[in-house]
Amino acid sequence: MFMRLVSYKDLLFVYIWREFIVRYKQSYIGVLWAILQPLTMMALFVIIFGYVLKTTDKDYPYVLFFYSGILPWTFFSASTNYAIPCLAGNFNLITKIYFPREIIPLAGVAINFIDYCFGLLIYIILLLVYEVHITINALWFIPLLALLIIYTASVGYLLSALNVYYRDVKLASNFILQLLFFASPVIYSLDRVELRWKALLIINPLTYIIENMRRVTIEGRGIILWQFVIEFLFVMLFYALVYKIFTRIERAFADVI
Questions:
Q1: Rounded to an integer, what distance in angstroms lies between the CA atom of residue 254 and that of residue 173?
Q2: Burial of 236 (0-12, 13-18, 19+ CB in 10 A)
Q3: Environment class of residue 133 by beta-carbon count within 10 Å: exposed (0-12), middle (13-18) or buried (19+)?
Q4: How far apart are CA 92 and CA 98, in angstroms?
Q5: pLDDT tens string 158-202
Q6: What's the DSSP call for residue 99?
Q7: Neighbours of 227 (CB within 10 A)
């Protein structure tokens, strides 16, 4: 991907900047929406799933538990929602000039990563407010974040390409994301899940990523290395397969779209 995009890096940066400006154009609070949205969801989840339903028995504050799950999920879902219609929605551009088509869904990942960084600052502040002891294990957050970005980009490539050929993908996107939301430990702890269901949930890379992001930051625990290696290989294999398919079929996008 980097070899393909190196000649188009200026186009990529311009496209990211344009989409970022368009997103917050004529908005009164601008990028503060990137902070307000996860905070609002966190407050709602704290009330419903923390105090009413009590879906977690962790001994740290509900605020940290839910926000640490909402943050990566919001990045993934927002990037996916952007990616699915992005190729079909830019048919005027795709049918007129050639450029690596992955620039468009990749721009969505980049824009939402900027929003994620704003939300991450709030997460750090919350960790300080609640006096969480940060250990050296928190450095594992960086490779986990890299896995999240690569997996998100892979899903974006796959669904955006499929949506060019089958517009049912856009119609089914809300249903797909709802399934993934409940299959990811955003509102519950994986520790409370029965062993027979854990094996099923762990197939979803988001399960591993979200659970271990909590583990290394809030709980101060390290990751299990062999599990990380397996997850890393799975995500990279998935990315390589999806990217190969994407570059193979992108030549026909202009004809099909």
A1: 23
A2: middle
A3: exposed
A4: 12
A5: 999 999 888 888 888 889 899 999 999 998 888 888 877 888 888
A6: -
A7: 12
- Tell which residue, 40, 57, 66, 163, has the closest CA to residue 108: 163
Of the candidates 245, 255, 256, the one whose C-alpha atom is nearest the C-alpha of residue 102 is: 245
Q: Which pLDDT tens digit goes with each residue over 95-113?
A: 888 888 899 999 999 999 9
- Three-state secondary structure call for residue 219: coil
- Residue 113 in 3-state DSSP? helix
- Under the banding of pLDDT at 50, 70 and 90, the label for residue 253 is confident
Cα 220 from Cα 134, distance rounded (Å): 6
Q: Is the distance from CB of 86 to CB of 153 less than 8 angstroms?
A: no
Q: Name the range with the highest mean pLDDT among 8-22, 82-96, 235-249.
A: 235-249
Spatial CB neighbours of 116, under 8 Å, sequence gap ≥ 6 = 34, 71, 72, 74, 75
Q: Can you read off the two tokens belonging to residue 28?
A: 């009164």
- Residue for token digits 């970022």? 20
In tens, the pLDDT along 203-215 reads: 899 999 999 999 9
Per-position DSSP letters for 151-183, written without gaps between them:
HHHHHHHHHHHHHHH-THHHHHHHHHHHHHHHT
Q: Are 58 and 66 in contact (CB under 8 A)?
A: no
End-to-end CA distance of the chain: 23
Phi (first) and psi of residue 183, to 5 degrees: -90, 0
Q: What is the pLDDT of residues 114-151, one digit of tens each?
A: 999 999 999 999 999 999 999 999 999 999 999 999 99
